[in-house]
Amino acid sequence: MVNLPGYQETNQIYPRKRTLVYRAIREQEGCRVIIKVLRNPFPRFNDLICFRKQYFITRHLEHPIIVRPLALERYSNSYALVMPDERTIALFKYWPNFSQNLIDSTNPSSSNGDISSRANSTKFNPNISFSSRQN
Fold first, then answer.
1. Are 72 and 55 in contact (CB under 8 A)?
2. Which residues lie across from 73 on neighbouring strands?
3. Is the dihedral of CA 111, 114, 117, 118 positive or negative?
4. What is the block-wise mean pLDDT of the chain (135 residues), using blocks of 10 residues?
């Protein structure tokens, strides 16, 4: 359970090896959000650095199928990554189904139109699983 001031947790979406992901309501605007936190209540310094980098990198990505984070909040001894809840799918759930990479899947000249059309109609949330390793 996440207890972050200004947010009302509604449910846990899924636990990962190193992170927990929750669905919540941002009380100020009343909008739905996704909150990702590190599982360890006393994370290692390197984990904090990686989490923070993840926020800063994705915050500056401008791509129509990538969800940009809203905020990086202080949470206990760590951070909470807050993203809009646009009913996106986690990249780790989408990726195993296709052999092409993200750039190829949005390329109009891609040889597989099915992947292109699905990629253009689906938003990815790289913050939930930014790399191929289990978070």
1. yes
2. 80
3. negative
4. 89 90 94 94 95 92 84 94 83 60 51 42 51 38
Taking the domain 7-125, which CATH number applies? 3.30.200.20
Q: Which residues contact 100 (CB under 8 A, 6 or more apart)?
A: 110, 112, 115
Which residue's structure tokens are 């990538």? 66
- For residue 52, what is the DSSP state? H
User: What distances in angstroms separate CA 66 from CA 9, 11, 33, 72, 130, one per listed residue?
Assistant: 23, 23, 15, 17, 11
CB 80, CB 69: distance < 8 Å = no
Domain ranges of the chain: 7-125
Helices (H), 30-75: 45-59
